[in-house]
């Protein structure tokens, strides 16, 4: 179902807890244990997988008791845990933990994988090699278990009385937790359209093509993935691809452009450089940027080769202008390499 997502402002994303800053670490761990026990007791039968492991309840409670004694390495530089998101893993399974979504082990879908948002308990279940997993021990971030992040108050378990959306079991709040809080293209919050096939969210003007009216909607990333599952296309040479009509390859070109817009996190290659970069137009005879490519893709290009040529021109211009600036030049090289790899894969060259 297509939904308009209105994330709360950062000011309202404060963790609610019965504990004050001065309360001891043992009180925080006790709240976590009590919260987990209460959550298990209050789960409804139709919650499926959440209730399926009741036979392991004793083991999970023992896990919490063991974790409460974790002291960690006091010499760890905690500055590497700053920021709104953190990389996490459980064995070979990797994800991104968003701090303001964390609530407890079973509430707050705070870990983003390629396919979905998950609670810590759901995340460790993705590891097929893990039996009787303990989320505080088995989920790690930069070499440290989540138990360490809890101890240092980098993460905090929410109070039993917390009424925030992350702790809510209301269907509307659970629906909102299934998708990103930020636009996948520009990274900003606001009124977002949520894809029904993946966790991505978009501003209406950021997505290609513009989302049509309707209750259900799949983003271009999902449409391309599904089309590749049923459509048989033999391998093509690069020359054949470049000579193809843009109208026959609109989906692939839109996907590649969205891929680049997302990968350009600092928006260095997305906007017109001429107004902000000194003497750019005098050094670069034909400036090009991703938003200009987007504009051209909506009606100017006739062949795929014209689209690819303009994208490559962006990185060629970057190398020319930044001959004495190796840092920016390297950024262009890295994004260019990402594009070429994705181009080859998308068109099966």
TrEMBL record:
<keyword id="KW-0863">Zinc-finger</keyword>
<dbReference type="Pfam" id="PF00439">
    <property type="entry name" value="Bromodomain"/>
</dbReference>
<feature type="compositionally biased region" description="Acidic residues">
    <location>
        <begin position="31"/>
        <end position="56"/>
    </location>
</feature>
<feature type="domain" description="SAND">
    <location>
        <begin position="73"/>
        <end position="156"/>
    </location>
</feature>
<dbReference type="InterPro" id="IPR010919">
    <property type="entry name" value="SAND-like_dom_sf"/>
</dbReference>
<feature type="domain" description="Bromo">
    <location>
        <begin position="276"/>
        <end position="329"/>
    </location>
</feature>
<feature type="domain" description="PHD-type">
    <location>
        <begin position="180"/>
        <end position="225"/>
    </location>
</feature>
<dbReference type="GO" id="GO:0005634">
    <property type="term" value="C:nucleus"/>
</dbReference>
<dbReference type="InterPro" id="IPR001965">
    <property type="entry name" value="Znf_PHD"/>
</dbReference>
<protein>
    <submittedName>
        <fullName>Nuclear body protein SP140-like protein</fullName>
    </submittedName>
</protein>
<dbReference type="InterPro" id="IPR019787">
    <property type="entry name" value="Znf_PHD-finger"/>
</dbReference>
<dbReference type="InterPro" id="IPR011011">
    <property type="entry name" value="Znf_FYVE_PHD"/>
</dbReference>
<dbReference type="GO" id="GO:0008270">
    <property type="term" value="F:zinc ion binding"/>
</dbReference>
<keyword id="KW-0103">Bromodomain</keyword>
<dbReference type="GO" id="GO:0000981">
    <property type="term" value="F:DNA-binding transcription factor activity, RNA polymerase II-specific"/>
</dbReference>
<keyword id="KW-0479">Metal-binding</keyword>
<dbReference type="GO" id="GO:0003677">
    <property type="term" value="F:DNA binding"/>
</dbReference>
<feature type="compositionally biased region" description="Basic and acidic residues">
    <location>
        <begin position="57"/>
        <end position="77"/>
    </location>
</feature>
<dbReference type="InterPro" id="IPR013083">
    <property type="entry name" value="Znf_RING/FYVE/PHD"/>
</dbReference>
<dbReference type="Pfam" id="PF01342">
    <property type="entry name" value="SAND"/>
</dbReference>
<dbReference type="Pfam" id="PF00628">
    <property type="entry name" value="PHD"/>
</dbReference>
<dbReference type="InterPro" id="IPR000770">
    <property type="entry name" value="SAND_dom"/>
</dbReference>
<dbReference type="InterPro" id="IPR043563">
    <property type="entry name" value="Sp110/Sp140/Sp140L-like"/>
</dbReference>
<keyword id="KW-0862">Zinc</keyword>
<feature type="region of interest" description="Disordered">
    <location>
        <begin position="1"/>
        <end position="78"/>
    </location>
</feature>
<dbReference type="InterPro" id="IPR001487">
    <property type="entry name" value="Bromodomain"/>
</dbReference>
<dbReference type="InterPro" id="IPR036427">
    <property type="entry name" value="Bromodomain-like_sf"/>
</dbReference>
